[in-house]
Write a structure and sequence with these properties.
The protein is of the alpha/beta class and 330 residues long. The protein is built from 12 helices and 13 strands. The structure holds zinc ion.
Length: 330
């Protein structure tokens, strides 16, 4: 994942070009930073304090660290209305839906969601499911085939249209608070790589708690800020980009879930990112892939069998690139 052939085959290069153009509209030419007129100052989403130290800067955005709990986030962020505009109509956001529909990406996502569903079904029998930010609906389609009563919310009109046409799914197109959903009516709520994008992750957790049945389950997947790749490479990892506002760790996400009446019962991480780290250790571009032609011997390059073991060790110790958390409504 993230290597250059994957990038080309999925059209991510065009997507990134569009994002670059959009970014240049957002940045002040003189300072190279986000325009003051677009700024929105935020507090730590976990402890609600505004006491931070500077962490690093990337692409004109400043990353700060909460001195109370260590949470890393972008501050100032892009203004909420602009973010909303982004999710409905910015060219890059619409182009992203094209990326998701490429053959290689569909194959990748189907495999990814099949694994996620299998994992999830170790803890819940098929029932009523809500996938927030469901995109094309691949996960919902797979879930439905396994007997789930599958519902989704997706604010991007284009993604919703694909979900409806491709899978015949009926997807809600409004924010949760504007929908007339019955409280305590869902058995499971999923948020696959969604929470890190949301202007107010707290609101979503509150809504999820309201909509879940007692003892209902929430499953969240986010980039893992405690991952070895992020801790070693900091801003060089693809996880850091202005679309990702918050960088959760197993501890900070659990604290946040506790505040909203959830009890975490399983934490797992995935993607060891061995090749990415190996490339970085050798001063190569981390995302150049694993077929770099090197004529020298390097202590960092390991045989496949060892790489596999290393990746397993990383994920089992919650150092994987993505964090998956399961919690129940208390
Ligand atoms: Zn904090």
């Amino acid at each position: 994942m993230g290597t250059y052939d994957f990038v080309k085959e999925t059209g991510r290069d065009t997507y990134w070009e569009l994002m670059e153009k959009e970014k240049s509209m957002m940045l002040d030419r003189r300072t190279g930073k986000l325009k003051k007129s677009l700024e929105r100052h935020v507090k730590c989403p976990v402890c609600r304090l505004d006491d931070t130290s500077f962490a690093f800067e990337k692409d004109g955005f400043t990353y700060v660290k909460c001195l109370e709990c260590g949470m890393l986030y972008i501050n100032p962020q892009l203004d909420e209305d602009k973010i909303r505009a982004q999710y409905r109509s910015l060219p890059s956001q619409n182009y992203w839906i094209e990326v998701l529909q490429t053959e290689r990406q569909l194959k990748y996502d189907t495999k990814k969601f099949r694994g996620a569903l299998e994992d999830m079904m170790m803890f819940a029998e098929p029932g009523k499911l809500l996938d927030i930010g469901c995109n094309l609906g691949i996960f919902l389609d797979l879930a439905r085939k396994k007997g789930w009563d599958a519902h989704g919310v997706e604010l991007n009109e284009k993604a919703r249209a694909v979900a409806e046409k491709k899978f015949g799914l009926d997807i809600y197109g409004k924010p949760l608070e504007e929908l007339d959903l019955e409280p305590e009516s869902f058995d499971v709520i999923t948020l696959w790589e969604v929470l890190e994008h949301l202007t107010n992750p707290r609101d979503i957790l509150e809504q999820a708690h309201r909509l879940l049945k007692p003892n209902g389950m929430i499953v969240i997947l986010v980039p893992n800020c405690d991952s070895l790749a992020i801790r070693m490479m900091h801003g060089k990892t693809a996880a850091f980009g202005w679309g990702h506002l918050w960088y959760f760790t197993p501890a900070s996400l659990e604290t946040l879930l506790n505040q909203y009446g959830f009890k975490v019962f399983k934490v797992g991480t995935e993607l060891g990112e061995i090749d990415t780290i190996t490339n970085h250790l050798q001063f190569d571009d981390p995302y150049i892939g694993n077929n770099v032609k090197r004529r020298y011997k390097s202590p960092y390059i390991q045989p496949e069998a060892i790489k596999k073991k290393l990746a397993q060790f990383i994920c089992e110790n919650n150092l994987g690139y993505k964090l998956r958390m399961y919690a129940k409504k208390r």
